[in-house]
Amino acid sequence: MEWRGQRVLVTGGAGFLGANLCIALAERGAKVTAVDAFLFGGGAHVANLDGADVELVRADIREVDMRPLCEGRNVIFNLAAQTSHMGGQSDPLADIDVNAVAQVKLIAAAREAAAEAVVVHASTRQFYGRPLYLPVDEKHPVAPPDANGVSKFAGEQYWMLENRVRGRPVASLRLTNCYGPRLRIRDARQTFLANWMREVLRGNAFEVWGGEQLRDLTFVDDVTEAFLLAAAEPRCHGRIFNVGGAPPVALAALAKMLVEVAGNGARYVVKNFPEDRAKIDIGSYYADDSAFRDATGWTPVTDVRTGLEKTLAWLRPRLEVYC
Ligand SMILES: NC(=O)c1ccc[n+]([C@@H]2O[C@H](COP(=O)([O-])OP(=O)(O)OC[C@H]3O[C@@H](n4cnc5c(N)ncnc54)[C@H](O)[C@@H]3O)[C@@H](O)[C@H]2O)c1
After folding, report:
1. What is the band of 294 on the pLDDT scale with cuts at 50, 70, 90?
2. Under 8 Å CB-to-CB from 137, ≥6 apart: which residues?
């Protein structure tokens, strides 16, 4: 797709994945509007869109009339979400408000104001729950391990319903653990890697819970490319895809690699899962994303070591800003 001149809306556009996507779109010449409520505990950061040719609208998709923001858009990338698993457990109603109710409102607004727009929805592997088999393909049963998984599944399904009933071109990408520049590192609300990276950059010890679990991490530039391809490729529309990443790595091996990459003598300690976390832990996960690769030709190009190097290099001079 020629992105130059495309009118694009990115919900959650000041967050981790959203900001990286906005910047990539703007660099390709798209006219980009990011809408973000800078929700407490989310990944939004004022510095995320620094210097980018992106219009930022501070608004809450639960409350604002989204029709003017949707008006005339060719593509909507829908990333706004309550993403914290523990947050969803402690306040499931707030979680549903963003991840499901606001999605239905956005669907109605887009129906009126941007009837033809392609929508790419950011979904998650989370609601597969503890995998019954590996790698996990899209036919794997859905069994959310927490409230956040339930609300994210509902949001995705409302968007797919819009495709089936109204014919809107919608693609949903079930992402795995993403990391890279602009990740929220203040705490582990987004990912365990946040705590690891913050502490390793400070030269401190960090905790690895368990250690044997496998994960397929996706570097953010590969996620961005997946979003762009899903919008551009008509074979993606009306479909749900897993998007995996680099070959799976055990968390203990990942921790060792992170310490090596940091090269500052930081270390880690392996511990048992805390009781409240163990209840919603999903064990090992890695995706079978061959359907997405077949449809788009996408393949992750950043291996984990390179991704960690790039992320630490980006974060190092910004540590205090992002903590
Ligand atoms: N990062 C990952 O590893 C990962 C994995 C699977 C799925 N996802 C999905 O990708 C999307 C982006 O995730 P992220 O990691 O960038 O998280 P993030 O928290 O950095 O981004 C989400 C953004 O949405 C905004 N937002 C939340 N509620 C809003 C509302 N009511 N109105 C307007 N803005 C609102 C937040 O302020 C935040 O900036 C989410 O939908 C998430 O579920 C991410």
Report:
1. very high
2. 242, 287, 288, 290, 291
113-166: per-residue pLDDT in tens?
999 999 999 999 999 999 999 999 999 999 999 999 999 999 999 999 999 999
Extract the tokens encoding 217: 């991490």
Q: How many CA atoms lie within 13 A of 153 on its CB side?
A: 16
CATH of domain 7-182+218-245+286-301: 3.40.50.720
Ligand 1 pocket check: which of 9, 16, 99 to mutate, most ligand atoms within 8 Å of Cβ? 16
* Closest ligand 1 atom to Cα of 42: 19
Q: What is the mean pLDDT of residues 221-248?
A: 98
Decide if pLDDT at 167 tops 80: yes
Sequence-distant (≥ 6) Cβ neighbours of residue 313 within 8 angstroms: none
Question: How far from 273 is each of 98, 131, 189, 237, 283, CA to CA, in Å?
Answer: 29, 18, 16, 39, 11
Name the residue at shortest CA distance from atom 43 of ligand 1. 83
Residue 78 CA to ligand 1 centre (angstroms): 9
Instruction: Give the global pTM.
Output: 0.97
Q: Residue 70 pLDDT > 80, yes or no? A: yes
